[in-house]
Amino acid sequence: MPVRVKKLIGTVLLVLLVVVYALIATMVAVAQLSQSGPVTHLLFFFLSGLLWILPAMLIIKWMVKPSKTAGH
Prior knowledge:
This is DUF2842 domain-containing protein. By secondary structure, this protein is mainly alpha-helical.
């Protein structure tokens, strides 16, 4: 698959990942943190703010990896 196509697909996947992840994180926060203290809020938002980076890194790594048929 050409790198340009992979970058297009990867970009769309990243946008979808961020949107879906934000919605899920918000739903979890609303459902679970309503009676929690500020330290719990801080920990949740710190972790949830960093956790989306792991799948995003995998998508970006896939996007920039040259295809096996590079040069054809």
